[in-house]
Amino acid sequence: MRARKRRDIGWYCLFVLPLVVVFTIIVIIPFIIGIVYSFFKWDGLPINPKIFVGFSNYAKLFTDTRFMTSALHTLIFTIVAVVLINVIGLIFALVVTGKLKTRNVARTMLFMPYLIGGLILGYIWKFILGEGFKMIGENLHLENFFFNWLTDKHFALVALIVVATWQMAGYIMIIYITGIQGIPDDVIEAAQVDGAGFWQTLFKIKFPLIMPSFTICLFMTLSNCFKIFDTNLSLTNGGPNNATEMFAMNIYNEIFKLNNYGYGQAKAILFFIVVACITLVQVTITKKKEVTM
Questions:
Q1: What is the 3-state secondary structure (H, E, C) of 33-63?
Q2: Taking Cα atoms as reference points, which of 196, 250, 271, 221 lies closest to residue 34?
């Protein structure tokens, strides 16, 4: 029995080993190298020397006005987008798990935006919110609302939230659908027999039982919104006047446009710590609220 168990463990390790090797080479080793580079002043060119500056790069972060502004933009974007994505995704899930006759078609149509890559999605919406809105405003004389949103520093951030919500809501809907369909029918029937209405069933029965789905959806939307880059690049490119420059884009610009490789790595490490702490707190809180059947 023990020999068989050891043999099974050996097979498990054999199949997991390639994944561990790839993950170590692609993620772990570059991450460690990035931490080391964050203590140096370097422009990223191998022919130029690396100057050790210790924690100076990290101290400089808190006096970097542009970096702090991008952090504020990211925080505002993330809070609003996470709420909208989860609320709309949950509403979609409740609708398509109901008695809607075209629910299968609706699921497909609502999920399709997620299949479009972030770069392509950004360019599509760039035309819609730019030239498209401007044309509608001029023809309908509604220039106060239908204008090029991407040239206004306030509406450009709103545009980014709209596009991110449009893309992610359908995917989050699928996770909520899985949670709703996992609720036993006899639990819902028992609540209805006891006289529970739609809203009571929703808030007292369904919501507590799909809390694991909430945990997953909040984690995914928080991490994805904090890390948004491709849509940010193609839709607004951080403009106008850096009004929509997010965390990831600020780091990209620091490293590849300003050639401050060491300082950019310090930003990336701080970014990782912030996202890891926030998502860890979120998972810990929502996990405690999960209900076991």
A1: HHHHHCCEECCCCCCCCCEECCCHHHHHHCC
A2: 271
The distance from CA 90 to its chain's CA centroid, rounded to whole angstroms, is 16
Query: Residue range 242-271: average pLDDT?
Result: 90
Phi/psi of residue 51, nearest 5 degrees: -105, 120
Q: From CA 107, how far away is CA 154, in angstroms rounded?
A: 33
pLDDT of residue 1: 61
Q: Provide the percentage of residues in the chain whose pLDDT is more than 70.
A: 98
Is the distance from CB of 232 to CB of 238 less than 8 angstroms? yes
Residue 213 corresponds to which tokens in the numbers above?
Answer: 């789905």
Give the pLDDT score at 291.
65
Half-sphere exposure (CA, 13 Å, Cβ side) for 17? Answer: 7
Contact 152, 75 (CB under 8 A): no
Please, are residues 213 and 176 in contact by the beta-carbon 8 Å criterion? yes
CA 3 to chain centre: 45
Q: How many beta carbons lie within 10 A of that of residue 201, not counting itself? A: 17
Per-residue confidence at 249, pLDDT binned at 50, 70, 90? very high
d(CA 92, CA 94): 6
Instruction: Give the closest residue to 77 by CA, choosing from 4, 176, 168, 204.
Output: 168
Full-prediction pTM beyond 0.85?
A: yes
